[in-house]
Amino acid sequence: MLTFTSQQLYAWVAMFIWPATRVLALIATAPPFGSASVPMLVKVLLGLAISTVIAPDVPVPAALDPTSMAGILILLQQLLIGASMGLAMRVVFAAVEAAGELTSSTMGLSFAAFFDPQTQGRTSVVSQLFSLLATMVFLSLNGHLILLQVMAESFHTLPISAAPMTTEGFHQLALWGAKLFSMGLQMSLPLLIALLITNFALGILTRAAPQLNLFGIGFSITMLAGFILIGFGLPYMLTPMQRFLSDGIEMVRLLGSVPSVNALPKP
């Protein structure tokens, strides 16, 4: 007859539920896994599959009841760690979308917005284009695999324990979130300057020929110039995107106190 003690049962449950919480929290928030276009069932099954693979190698506190107050606090701690890692990666994609919003507004396409199923909100067409480009670059560089690797390594450098968490990681995450606007501005600045020069030229042209209808031709010229500039500038956006994605992986590594492993190559 197969028998086991309550301590053994607690150890088996804890060996799976605590790592799975960190993994599921990261998948729910980090792109591209956390996209709303990915079905919830796929996210859950993927998180459980990854947890099943890495759980036997994860050190967990011995003989601790997962249903006790200490066990619930550990569960919340793992949820917070995983969500923080995913949010750090999400900041990079938000910066790319912000660059698209700035470019779209300068082109005069701020009205050309639609409901984005990935972010569950209103987004411009240029912002959606930049977001898809960032996702393709991230996947082509195996960033999703590196992200999962860093998360798996974090169980050894930031092990599951009942010890209280420090606030240093959250302080670094707040500072990283503040860089969202600077990264978005850096990516869109060449396009903004070129479009600003175009508007200056239109203003001079209108001053020289007052009979021209600025509102009639200005919008068309600005929008056409914006599309031409985006077409010429897309190949050059790969370098800053790659650098920002690499910085995002490094921030996830910092939050998990993971030594540098196979980080995305910086240009």
UniProtKB/TrEMBL annotation:
Source species of the chain: Herbaspirillum robiniae
Entry keyword set: Bacterial flagellum, Cell membrane, Cell projection, Cilium, Flagellum, Membrane, Transmembrane, Transmembrane helix
Membrane-crossing segments per the record: 9-28, 40-60, 72-96, 129-148, 189-209, 215-238
Coiled-coil boundaries: none
Pfam families found in the cross-reference section: Bac_export_1
Subcellular location: Cell membrane; Bacterial flagellum basal body
Domain of life, per lineage: Bacteria
Family, as annotated: Belongs to the FliR/MopE/SpaR family.
Name this protein carries in UniProt: Flagellar biosynthetic protein FliR
Topological category with respect to the lipid bilayer: Multi-pass membrane protein
Job description of the protein: Role in flagellar biosynthesis.
Subcellular location, principal: membrane
